[in-house]
Design brief:
mainly alpha; Growth Hormone, Chain: A
């Protein structure tokens, strides 16, 4: 590693307290993030059940996830622009309520198109929440504490994903796939009410650069000219392509290719996500904090380097072993490394841009990582599987894109100039 760069924050800033209400907001937003991913992955857990009930093809079982992600990514920049001037907690409350109702409504589907539409509507609600939550956290916590806050916040992703698979698989096999949608959707209405009790902190209170009015075209130009932001999003997109394929197809791979029962496969993937995700997100956040001051762009370094063993382990799990128990062990290990990027990359998206751009920076990043990532990877894998009759071969795309994501982040770490003007990880 290269020598430590000059610090971009004064030493006296390192003990600044968070804004009033920060802890409550972090708890509420983390709970929302948990439900977000529970709702998102329930369809993947019960894929085989609604495929049979609604008489769908492999590709058609993945299009509802793509429809959700497509609407989510289109709506995110819109909410990002609204967040610069409107009350963020109200927008978040409306969004969480909307996605919860839409999730439950998917249980009423009578065919492909009704399932597609209800899952697409989930994307509108989630866009309001996912775009605004990081900018809220950035205004509650000073830059030097954001990575730790984001570590807590993003631990909810693997836990929520695991619960989505576990609850979906259990309820789906015991009571039917429709019950699974009802059970995970309706509790979100209570959480939406909690958003109204949060404070909406002063924008940019912890930053040297005060918020200013920036038009959307100017915001796009500034983000496009920010090399740290561009490299971060590029690697994020490739990794999201891979994780979208893992999330939507790995339980089916274990069931169809390796002979596991569907509920056992869904439970195994859920358990691997929660164990690997908890350890990986925590480890990545811890190592990223320790790397600050030891190398330039430490958040890029940690994210890229951890993705290398993740790529190798996923490839071995797919192609080198056949025993389900061994595969699951390898996937747990792989997910520890995969999830390590979670906190540092998202903290980097916040810290690498000025306060006026944060919500829009997240909105654009959401558009990119989904438009070119998990919006297209599940149906592409499904289409390749349908056309070739070889699901295992189609899943080759997963380790390939994981490896490319690692390369992008590592090159950015080594090639980009040290940051200036913002506290960058």
């Amino acid at each position: 590693m290269s020598g430590p760069p000059p610090s971009s924050a004064p030493a006296s800033s390192l003990d600044r307290p968070a804004a009033p209400g920060a802890t409550f907001a972090l708890v509420v937003l983390t709970l929302m993030n948990l439900l977000n991913y529970v709702d998102r992955w329930v369809p993947s857990a019960v894929k085989a059940l609604f495929k049979k009930d609604l008489d769908l093809t492999d590709a058609e079982t993945s299009w509802p996830l793509t429809a959700f992600v497509f609407v989510y990514m289109i709506a995110s920049p819109i909410f990002g622009a609204l967040a610069e001037t409107k009350n963020r907690r109200v927008l978040i409350a409306i969004g969480v309520a909307a996605w919860s109702i839409a999730t439950a409504a998917a249980g009423l589907s009578q065919g492909f198109w009704t399932l597609l539409v209800t899952r697409a509507l989930v994307g509108v609600g989630e866009a309001a929440y996912a775009t605004l939550a990081p900018s809220l956290l950035a205004d509650f916590f000073p830059p030097e504490k954001r990575n730790r806050a984001f570590t807590v916040f993003y631990v909810a992703i693997p836990v929520g994903s695991a619960l989505g698979f576990a609850i979906g698989g259990l309820l789906g096999t015991q009571f039917g796939w429709r019950t699974a949608f009802y059970a995970v959707g309706l509790p979100g209405l209570a959480v939406a009410a909690l958003a109204l009790l949060m404070k909406d902190p002063v924008r940019g209170a912890f930053d040297d650069t005060p918020p200013r009015e920036v038009s959307f075209p100017e915001a796009l130009r500034l983000l496009a000219r920010n090399p740290v932001y561009v490299v971060t999003v590029a690697g994020y997109t490739l990794v999201t392509f891979a994780t979208g394929g893992i999330g939507d197809w790995f339980a089916e791979f274990l069931h169809r290719v390796r002979g596991m029962d569907l509920d056992a496969a869904a439970l195994a993937i859920g358990a691997s996500a929660v164990v690997g995700g908890l350890l990986g997100t925590s480890l990545g956040g811890f190592v990223a904090d320790r790397a600050v001051g030891r190398t330039r762009h430490p958040y890029l370094a940690v994210s890229g380097l951890f993705m290398v063993p993740a790529t190798v382990l996923v490839a071995i799990a797919l192609f080198a072993v056949e025993r389900p128990a061994t595969i699951i062990g390898l996937i747990v290990a792989a997910q520890i490394f995969v999830w390590a990027y979670n906190a540092p990359v998202n903290a980097l998206l916040v810290n690498s841009v000025e306060p006026s751009l944060r919500a829009r920076a997240f909105g654009i990043s959401i558009l990119c990582i989904h438009a070119l990532g998990d919006a297209i990877s599940p149906p592409i894998i499904g289409l390749v599987s349908d056309s070739s009759g070889n699901l295992l071969g189609a899943l080759t795309l997963v380790p390939v894109t994981l490896g490319l994501g690692a390369v992008v982040w590592i090159v950015g770490w080594r090639a980009l100039k040290p940051p200036s003007g913002v506290l960058e990880g």
